[in-house]
Design brief:
By secondary structure, this protein is an alpha/beta fold. It is about 40% helix and about 15% strand. The termini are far apart. Bound molecules: flavin mononucleotide.
């Protein structure tokens, strides 16, 4: 399957990095179409100290890519802008309130919003991993709009019941949950066992 991954300018660049690495390593995935917004590049530089548009993907992956194809945010003629391209769906991680607004209101003003719009019209999975706190009413309304149109609101909220010892554990657990929801359960993902913490 081909999976589309968009990274926007919300906090949580490390989550996007983990997602891209997991997809790159997953034999069930034949291709990953990757788009980062201009703001995402700024946040990635702030949070991961990685910069340089051209080598960014390799830096995020920690090596050369075998199947991840980068697209420019303004390339509205890219493959994923068309419903005829066989994408299995799209994950926006992290999803800023700005991009949420654009998707929820059908703006299709850049490749990320257009590819998301295509997922909704083609009834393909669209996971919006929104990140902001607190939410204002505009954010809440836009989440409702997007959910009504078929998107899954999958907020960046960590779990604690798995007793994560490190930030890396939290990141891995969140990405595992995202991928399981997308139909790509990960082999070593934590699974809740009732009574395990007693
Ligand atoms: C370091 C940093 C962290 C940010 N974190 C968030 C965030 O968590 N959520 C959010 O909605 N916007 C956040 N922003 C603001 C967005 O980057 C900004 O609204 C931007 O216009 C979003 O553009 P995009 O949706 O095209 O990526 C952050 C900006 C910076 C520089």
């Amino acid at each position: 399957m081909n999976v589309t991954v968009a990274v926007t300018g919300a906090s949580g660049a490390v989550l996007a990095q983990q997602l891209l690495r997991a997809l790159e390593a997953d034999a069930r995935v034949s291709g990953v179409d990757f788009v980062a917004s201009e703001s995402a590049l700024r946040v990635i530089a702030e949070e991961l100290h990685l910069s340089g548009r051209h080598e960014l993907l390799e830096k995020l992956l920690g090596g050369a890519t075998k199947k991840t194809h980068p697209h420019a945010e303004q390339d509205i003629g890219a493959s994923i802008a068309s419903g005829s391209y066989p994408s299995a769906g799209m994950i926006v991680l992290p999803c800023s309130m700005g991009t949420l607004a654009g998707i929820a209101n059908g703006m299709a003003a850049n490749l990320i919003e257009r590819a998301a719009d295509v997922c909704l019209k083609e009834r393909r999975p669209l996971l919006l991993c929104v990140r902001e706190t607190p939410f204002n009413k505009i954010h809440l309304r836009n989440m409702q709009l997007a959910a009504d149109a078929g998107a899954t609101i999958f907020p960046v909220i960590p779990a604690f019941y798995n007793e994560p010892a490190t930030t890396a554990d939290m990141v891995r657990n969140f990405v595992d949950r995202v991928l399981a929801h997308f139909g790509l359960p990960q082999p070593n993902a934590y699974v809740w066992k009732p009574g395990a913490g007693e």
